[in-house]
Amino acid sequence: MSTAAxxxxxVVELTGVTKEYPGGVAALRxxxxxxxxxxxxxxxxxxxxxxxTLLHIxxxxxxxxxxxxxxxxxxxxxxxxxxLSALRAQHIGFVFQAFHLVPGISAQDNVAEGLLYSGLPxxxxxxxxxxxxxxxxxxxxxxxxxxxxxxxxxxxxxxARAVVGEPDLLLADEPTGALxxxxxxxxxxxxxxxxxxGATIAVITHDTEIAARLPRQVRIRDxxxxxxxxxxxxxxxxxxxxxxx
Length: 245
Description:
GO terms for molecular function: ATP binding. By secondary structure, this protein is an alpha/beta fold.
């Protein structure tokens, strides 16, 4: 491995991050979090714990009231709105519970939408979209429109759209929340496969069973990280290391 591989900055660095809303409501209270390249982790907590706010902060969809946020080596506070949008487009992929696919266009064109601001010509965007759909096991569904796909297939299209640009970070917000158990299992297997291929993935969830299957679980409660558990060999291995904050 080259020396450069060791010197690349973490994908996510949060230091002392606080988020307050009008009325003195504190959604985050001094959060410290580092996500290294190639990690697969769950950010888990009940409704109202602050995990959705943390998703918005990490995804640069919102800015903290205090503290520092660095994404792929870029200090978010130092960026203009335009450069922040570019950072988001180039470095972060999003997957949401509700899929957010464009109705009336094919799976291939939905995935190509993920490269809309890349500057690539349309033919190249569609070629890369086809490759991404093959990657998630939907090579035979490229021409299908969202209403012709099952829930699990829609989520696979959404994942393909999120990873087509090879982002530094994939943020998956309750990716199995709208799926039956079989489809949800298939989506989680895909997430594990993408991670094995090198993708850095954070799954935001309230589901402790899903979180327990991932090699790292960052537990949020009342706006704070209360536990950061690492299970390097998987949740079915007897040994694990646990850090409690």
